Amino acid sequence: MKSIGEKCAVFGIYGKGLDVSRLTFFGLYALQHRGQESSGIASTDGKEIFCHKNAGLVAQVFNEETIKGLPGHIAVGHNRYSTSSGSGIKHAQPVEVEDKSIVLAHNGNLPSVIQLASFLKSRGVVLSNVSDSAMITGALHVLVKEGMEIEKAVEEIFPLMTGSFSILIMTKEKLIALRDSFGIRPLSIARLNGGYVFASETCAFHPIGATYMREVNPGEMVVVDENGLKIKQIAERTQKLDIFEFVYFSRPDSNLLGKSVYGVRKNFGIQLAKEYKINADVVIPVPETAIPVAVGYANASGIPFEMGLIKSRYIHRTFIEPEQHIRDQGVKLKLAPLKEIIENKRVIVIDDSIVRGTTSRQIVKMLFEVGAKEVHFLVSSPPVKFPDFYGIDLPNQGELLAANKTIEEINTHLGSTSLRYLSYEGMIKSTGLDESLFCTSCFTGQYPVDLRERKREVVYLNQAHKAHRYGKI
After folding, report:
1. Which H/E stretch holds residue 263?
2. Matching SUPFAM superfamilies, A to Z (predicted)?
């Protein structure tokens, strides 16, 4: 249903006496929303590294037999979202080197791999048609084979990794967590029974009984081994968390930069109500992300909140292809309108973002089909006008509706009675944090990490269109 997808989730654990693979399974289960294409877990008992990964959801890839086949006291796990680089088992993680001495799980994306490729070529290693994650793993392996300690190898390769990354690296003795110098993708640490847990989101700690410690800082390397926890700042720290984590990706029960995701989304709704006063009978969210937004808007506006759209909770990735008639139903396969809530009503429908507009258009049409008198479409973020290069599976700029149409034109395209976006200033204000802490590239075209050879993929709007940047007509 969504046109954007988070590239991945990572989870790792070090703990003597813990059933680490089973705990990793439940950690990945809590992070399923960040990727549904494939899942994998690697573990080690100090002598050997074991790995199991496949296409599918966490519960489809693992069972009692596979979990029991992953013994040890260290484990890393990964959920992957299908992106343009490919899908299926070939691209499933964790990435393993040939001699199974290093495995790596990566959330993020390197828009430029020229420096990594040059390093590998200088060492006589030619890797063709592989992911950025495989190149990072290959470069680390080269240095370790030359006799370098894994921590030192990470420090050597770090400057060559141009892009965003929250990475977990496992050897037979160590678990290493690493975050890019801008902290674009999230990564946190928790304690569990004398051991340590790392996860893309804090929502993965509660199900396994882990106690949150703090976030891994941008540019920080955290190493866990038999001697405990070692922390080293290996690059200058400049926090630029991707604000899309608040807008869409993260689970509402997670915390980012000390803020509740649910609370920030509720603030989005309150701010929308301040910016746009609409005469309507009911406020409904597009499940699930927009629910707290709609709650905030309803509370602030005094317009009743209702769940006018019901999401099928079990329409996830399936290996059963729907026949053509079912495919033609589009959004109806995943969302069902409640006629008694919508019929003869002036409806405000709230969603987190509009990318291509295909889903939004179908939702508007569906609401009118069940008898809505008016459909006012509110969006809890500014117009998405620029492509992403840091780990979000966004279409190229030519497919982004707001990069090619004004707000009035998008409203006509959707068929809605009115269309309103949360202002850029309102989005930042709702977080309760300073603008400088965020990467807002999808909205502003300002990229904290140099795009290098991929700069040519970005087209900046002319002055006439810049008036629409912040969602203002």
Report:
1. helix 261-275
2. N-terminal nucleophile aminohydrolases (Ntn hydrolases), PRTase-like
Residue type, 2: K
Residue type at 366 in one-letter notation: M
Phi, psi for 199 (deg, rounded to 5): -155, 150
Residue with tokens 């549904």: 36
Q: How far apart are CA 342 and CA 328, in angstroms?
A: 23
Residue 421 has pLDDT above 60, yes or no: yes
User: Are residues 102 and 44 in contact, defined by beta-carbon separation less than 8 angstroms?
Assistant: no
Cis before 156 (ω within 30): no
What average pLDDT does the chain have?
92
Q: Which CATH number fits domain 260-436+454-466: 3.30.1330.10, 3.40.50.2020, 3.40.50.2300, 3.40.1190.20?
A: 3.40.50.2020
Annotated catalytic residues are: 8
Helical H segments across 94-247, by residue range: 114-122, 132-145, 150-157, 244
Q: What are all long-range contacts of 411-418, with beta carbons under 8 Å and residues at least 24 apart?
A: 411/377, 413/357, 413/361, 414/357, 414/360, 414/361, 414/364, 414/377, 415/361, 415/364, 415/365, 415/368, 415/375, 416/364, 416/375, 416/376, 416/377, 417/374, 417/375, 417/376, 418/278, 418/376, 418/377
Whether 253 has a binding-site annotation, put simply, is no
Instruction: Tell the residue number behind the tokens 């700069």, with chain if given.
Output: 455
Residue 462 pLDDT exceeds 70: no
- Give the model's pLDDT for residue 373: 98
Q: Is the pLDDT at 1 greater than 50, yes or no?
A: no
> Does the annotation flag 289 for ligand binding?
yes
Handedness of CA 432, 435, 440, 444 (dihedral sign): positive
Cite the residue boundaries of each domain of the chain with CATH code 3.40.50.2020.
Answer: 260-436+454-466
CA distance 190 to 204: 10
Cis upstream peptide for 94 (omega within 30°): yes
Give the span between the Cα atoms of 460 and 468, in whole angstroms: 13
CATH architecture of the domain with range 8-239: 4-Layer Sandwich (3.60)
Q: Chain-centre distance of CA 126, in angstroms?
A: 30
Ranges 127-131, 210-214, 232-236, 321-325: which has the least confidence = 321-325
| CB 163, CB 390: distance < 8 Å | yes
> Sheet containing 74-80: which strands, arranged edge to edge?
49-55, 38-44, 74-80, 8-14, 195-199, 188-192, 211-215
* Span(s) in the chain for CATH 3.60.20.10: 8-239
Phi, psi for 173 (deg, rounded to 5): -120, -20
Report the distance separating Cα 258 and Cα 261, nearest Å: 9
CA distance 59 to 360: 30
Which letter, b or e, does each residue of 158-167 get, where b requires 16 or more Cβ atoms within 10 Å of its Cβ?
Answer: bebbbbbbbb
